[in-house]
Amino acid sequence: MAEEKTGAELLREELFRRQKHAYEVLSADEIARADAFCEGYKAFLDACKTEREAAAWMIQRAEGLGFRPYEEGRPCGPGEKFYVNQRGKAVILAVAGAQSPERGLRLTAAHIDSPRLDLKAQPLYEDQGLALAKTHYYGGIKKYQWTAVPLALHGVVVKKDGTKAIVHIGEAPGDPKFCITDLLPHLGKEQEKRTLDKGIKGEELNIVVGSRPLMLEGKAEGFRLHMLQLLNEHYGIAEEDLISAELEAVPAWSACDIGLDRSMIGAYGHDDRVCAYPCAEALFALESPDLTAVAVLADKEEIGSMGNTGLQSNFLWDFLTDFALGQGANPRKMLRNTRCLSADVNAAMDPTFPDVLDSRNAAGLNKGVVLTKFTGHGGKYSSSDASAEYMAWVRRILDSAGVQWQTGELGKVDEGGGGTVAMYLAKLNLDVVDLGVPVLSMHSPFELAAKTDIAMLYRACEAFYKAED
Questions:
Q1: Confidence check: pLDDT of 416 > 80
Q2: Tens digit of pLDDT for each residue in 183-205?
Q3: CA distances to 70, 167, 335, 400 from 76, in Å
Q4: Following DSSP, what letter does each residue of 28-86 receive, concatenated?
């Protein structure tokens, strides 16, 4: 006969919050569905290593599901599906609801740019029998992580006449790849005296692109000239065209399963495509929501959401205003009643480096999506800090849908921290909180995320889009 629980044990069950592991609560069928969902996500990652590629992929998928380009001012009937292509580097996806927009929207926001190396405007040079390319790193990286790994080159070159050459080198079987060299340990004694952040300097992130000179009439005419000749043969471009180019060096490997149990995905670009994909897929599955559902997939988050494709610009505000007016609604009233999830990753507890996180307030792999009341850094600077009322509403939505969730902060109070787009969305006078996937090795060329957490974000977005007030 089972012993009766003591009063203290009953009280603990009633009052304590115990964070359960996914494999304690998910059925075998749910785990299988999570694994299947992540196969599509891995294919997305492999196809979309830049923000341009992710935007194009989303638009192509949306059009295949009946979405059409948004027409400014035209009323949208319930269930109509449409999108906005923001300069080829950001996308807004939407499904019109049955209720007036003045009841508010269900808005999710993620970003589709990731840390990388951008080629400079005049990148090519030659030295010591090598052809190299100068780079400028984009976003927060540990520079030493980008040396001695295979790199691919993705991007676009726009010629003076406006025609575009799409560059995609290093991914297909048989493609050449690129790399950045590092010193051998035998000669790296002085380098090893540098602090870790200076182990490799920004101006040392030079990509090796070739080592054969152009041979004309039996005479070597130069390495840089040879590289430009090859680029001209394949893409019809000259060196001056590189000034009007966006060429990004990214890791030249595919997303793959990690672990003997295949429970995780290792890949470049989890931050933040691991949130963008579930947000979009959940919206794609909507048919006739009660309230209009919107997913904005933005650019430039990694450098502060600047520029006309980042969420500090007016492109989202312009769309939301146009949509409200087209529906005969007051935009300001719509935004006051809108509820938003800022879908961005959070740091997962790493047992190798536990000291930088507060274990009581840190997220872990396979414990569900991370609900983060505030981000920012010491003193809550650069944070929107969601209200207690909105936190309670989101908790209720997640629990009602059986979504596994946890709380987390990006490090101890004085250890650093980081920001998301939540603070820019909050400027629109809507309710917003961060909800995303925990990640290990964030901002590295090879990040880790758990399959159950990725699938759980899909379920969270699905519940959120359908949630009533």
A1: no
A2: 999 999 999 999 999 999 999 99
A3: 9, 38, 18, 30
A4: HHHHHHHHHHHHHHHHHHHH-SSHHHHHHHHHHHHHHTT-EE--TT----TT-EEEEEE
Token couple for 177: 């790849």
Q: What is the CATH number of the domain that holds 57?
A: 3.40.630.10
pLDDT at 2: 63
Q: What is the CATH number of the domain that holds 149?
A: 2.30.250.10
Please give the mean pLDDT across all residues of the chain. 95
Which tokens go with 262?
A: 């295949």
Is the pLDDT at 11 greater than 90? The verdict is no
Long-range contacts of 58-64 (CB under 8 A, 24+ apart): 58/83, 58/91, 58/93, 58/112, 58/276, 58/280, 58/297, 59/83, 59/85, 59/91, 61/280, 61/284, 62/91, 62/93, 62/284
Task: Give every CB contact of residue 310 below 8 A, 6+ residues apart in sequence.
Answer: 90, 298, 299, 300, 301, 303, 304
In this structure, the strands spanning 68-69 and 81-86 are parallel
Buried b (16+ CB within 10 A) or exposed e, 390-414: beebbeebbeeeebbbbbbbbbbee
Domain that holds residue 173: 117-251
Q: pLDDT by residue (tens digit) across 226-254?
A: 999 999 999 999 999 999 999 999 999 99
Proportion of the chain above pLDDT 90, given as a percent: 88
- The span from the CA of 134 to the CA of 202, in Å, is 10
**3-state secondary structure at position 256:** strand
pLDDT of residue 71: 95
> Strand, coil or helix: what is 383?
coil
106 and 133 together in one domain? no
Question: For 417, left (φ over 0), alpha (ψ -120 to 50), or beta?
Answer: left
H or E element at residue 441: none
Alpha-carbon gap, residue 279 to 109, rounded angstroms: 8
Domain annotation covers residue 4: no
CB 317 within 8 A of CB 437: no
Q: Band the pLDDT of 19: cuts 50, 70, 90.
A: confident
Global pTM?
Answer: 0.96
Residue 367: inside a domain, yes or no?
Answer: yes
Q: Are 57 and 297 within 8 A, CB to CB?
A: no
